[in-house]
Amino acid sequence: xxxxxxxxxxxxxxxxxxEQFALQLGRRGHHLVLTARSEDKMHALAxxxxxxxxxxxxxxxxxxxxxxxxxxxxxxxxxxxxxxxxVLINNAGFGSHNPVAAEDPDNLARE
Length: 111
Description:
The protein has helices spanning 16-27, 39-52, 70-81, 105-110; strands spanning 7-11, 31-36, 58-62, 87-89. It is of the alpha/beta class. It has a single domain (7-110), classed as Rossmann fold (3-Layer(aba) Sandwich). The longest helix is centred in the middle third of the chain and has 14 residues, at 39-52.
């Protein structure tokens, strides 16, 4: 019995922890779907991964998952491409340099 490669979706994959997840999972033979806002950075990362690990598939889908409706659009794009995701690394995040008490409640509700 041969195990099938796992397909992992990494959100926030263009830098930081998301990029490191992608690099480590690629090294372990996972097929990857990279999503983040920075399409150029993701394409560069995808090229690095493909060069280092020729047996893996790497898909790039640019999306700002903080925007309403973009998670559903990502799901639809995965279906269009015929990609079945086995594992989700939900790393996309947001940041602020203000204390929570100083934040606009409408902004916090959106994020």
